[in-house]
Amino acid sequence: MSEISKKTPFGLIPSTWSFAPLRSIVCRITEKNENRSENVLTISARDGLVNQRDYFNKSVASKNLSKYVYLRKGDFAYNKSYSNGFPYGAIKRLEKYPVGIVSTLYICFRNSSESIDNEFLKYLFDSPLWHNEVRMIAKEGGRAHGLLNIGINEFFDIMLPIPPRKEQQKIAEILSSVDEAIEKTEQIIAQTEKVSKGLMQQLFTKGIGYSEFKKSSFGMIPKGWEEVQMNEISGSIRNGFVGTASPYYSTDENSIPYLMSNNVRKNKLDLNKLVHVDKSFHDKNQKSILSKGDLLTVQSGHIGTTCVVTDEFDGANCHALIVTSLSSSNVIPEYISYFLNSFEGYRRLRGIFVGSTIKHINVKDFKKLYLPIPSSIDEQIQIVKILKSMDFKTDNEKKKVESLLKLKEGLMQQLLTGKVRVPVDEDEVIEA
Fold first, then answer.
1. For 55-72, how does the pLDDT look when each residue is reduced to its tens digit (9 = 90+)?
2. Fewer Cβ atoms within 10 A, N terminus or C terminus of the chain?
3. Domain boundaries, the chain
4. Is 5-162 assigned to CATH 3.90.550.10?
């Protein structure tokens, strides 16, 4: 069945769809809490309406909660604050709790139309389709940075594309199935990370296959292991270049990779924001030149995070990182990296943090840091191999989530505009 389309500000939509103002399908919620609930909610662009204390680890609500807006499960709230990735704020549905309360700064509403499937409405607001409508009425608020100045009446006048109810339900079913796949994959990631943390704790204190242990500052460790300071196994522990290197950034084919703290992640390099410097800067700053196998430790920011310099960055330069060049042939750098990124490693690092406002690590303190070292290189390699396999599994599952999120984004764009139609009866095929 081929169908004629009609023109709207959203582009062409199927002729059987309507193009309606928000106020025609919802009613505004202004019901006050009157101290019925203490479940103060905030909007997380990713997680929706969540408990404020759980999200911020503290309450930022007023002491008097009686005037907060009272929501029930299935109701919607619009946070007019904008942020990176959410230039027009976020509209989310209450799903996690039977009731909750939100600040009167939020615009709240619920589905009031029998012709609208509430699950479809949720996905409509998860998509960016309503952004252009808000963009035309939004101005930055004068009272608070980051708050869009949107009138109540104007907000409820925004126009939305509405398919017939059966098609809404089919669209919601498809998108819900993708969400279920995302949730299951994220559960696998959480479980894998939990197991990995437990393995780290076990491997860095009990080792592999030991029956005899001795006392140490780390608790009981295997006999044959040693407590060693960083400076005992290192030929050099130094700072990367500290200063302003941006005037020397270059895209020339002879430019040199310049690693910074935002490139260092736990046991790996993140090259999404990799910059390069010209050769003149590189030649003048020999102390910050890297060699394969060097350890890079973040001094401030995600402090203490460590990784190993790989083959492709042998001879690169770096900024404001602690660079450790190992001198001992009895230690592999990957083992040190995994230990420093473990719970016990971070606990030790935290003990040498300095600074009242911005915490950082001094090289002189880092040199004195103690590590538990297996005497056998083979055991170190085996420990790293086990932990790398866990990282590999986690990374693969995270890639699956990224793919599913892209799939969902593409499906929303296609299904919620009618560019791709879904059959609502078994023998029906619709062509846009």
1. 887 777 778 899 999 999
2. N
3. 5-162, 165-208+376-424, 226-373
4. no
Q: Where are the alpha helices (DSSP H) in 110-161?
A: 118-126, 131-135, 152-156
Q: How far is CA 427 from CA 1, 167, 423, 430, in A?
A: 11, 14, 8, 10
Element (H, E) at 307: strand 306-308
Q: Where are the alpha helices (DSSP H) in 318-376?
A: 333-340, 343-350, 363-366
Burial 203-239 (b: 16+ CB within 10 A, else e): bbbebeeeeebeeeebeebbeebeebebbbbbeebeb
Percent composition of the chain: helix, strand, coil (DSSP 3-state, to 5): 35, 25, 40
The domain 165-208+376-424: what is its CATH number?
A: 1.10.287.1120
For residue 34, what are the contacts with CB-CB under 8 A and spacing of at least 6? 66, 70
pTM, to two decimals: 0.83
Write down the H helix ranges in 141-230.
Answer: 152-156, 165-206
Distance separating the N- and C-terminal Cα atoms of the chain: 9
